[in-house]
Each structure stands twice: as C-alpha cells, then as structure tokens.
Amino acid sequence: HSQFSHFLVLQLSIENLQFWDAVEIFRQGGGQPDAARDIYNKFIKKGSVCQVNISGNSYQQADKSVTDGVFSPIMFDEAQREIMHILLFHSYPLYKNTTVSESSSYSLSAHESGEVV
Fold first, then answer.
1. What is the rounded CA–CA span in Å between residue 6 and residue 91?
2. CA 55, CA 16: separation in Å to the nearest integer?
3. Which residues contact 115 (CB under 8 A, 6 or more apart)?
4. Residue 39, Cβ density class (10 Å: 0-12 exposed, 13-18 middle, ≥19 buried)
5. Interatomic CA distance for residues 64 and 57, integer angstroms
6. 72: closest CA among 24, 27, 18?
7. Cα–Cα distance between 20 and 29 in angstroms, integer?
8. How many other C-beta atoms can be found within 10 angstroms of the C-beta atom of residue 42?
9. What are the residue ranges of helices labelled H in the chain?
10. Per-residue pLDDT at 92
11. pLDDT tens figures, 2-32
C-alpha cells in the first residue's frame, strides 16, 4: 500500500486513494454528517484542493446530499466505485508496469556489470 501510495504521489493522483480510504472510514463510522462534509469539501467540491475526477452524475448526487443535509453511509458509493475503477484499470497497471520496468532495467544493468542479482 505504501509503495503504491508513493507512486500515486509521483503521478499526482494520490487524491484517488485518499478519497477511497476516506469513504471507507466514513462508511465504517456510520456516515456522520461532519465526515461527509469533510469528504465533500476536500475531494468533490468544484475547485477543491484534492478534487477527484468523477462523473457529473456522481458529483450532482453528492452535492445534492450535502446541500440538502441528507447523509448516509452509502452516499459516496457511486463516486467511490468510479475512483476504484480508475485505480484498478489505470493507476495500478501503470504502477505494475513501472515497477516491472524498473526492476528489469536494474536486473539488466546488474547483469551487464557482472553483479549477481
């Protein structure tokens, strides 16, 4: 988890993993209104510092819930699914390709220099 987190920091996309983690904690905590507002303000609100890239539908759903004061442990589920899709099908494969590439180039350079790997 920490190596993947570090990779996401380097790729300027750590907010996706932070959002996913925050929603997990929010859900386990029973969907507290203050926590919902924090998640909305940090990750969803237009122009927020760590705004995640979610569909207009997910944005509108979260915005309406927070604006109307209707909070539930599952209110961010659709947005979380979208972010999980990004993590699983974009970020993680890129991470795996990068680490495989880095270890391959390390092994190749070690082999060329005569080092035992």
1. 12
2. 14
3. none
4. buried
5. 10
6. 27
7. 14
8. 17
9. 2-10, 14-28, 33-39, 56-68, 77-86, 92-113
10. 76
11. 787 886 776 767 899 999 999 999 999 999 9
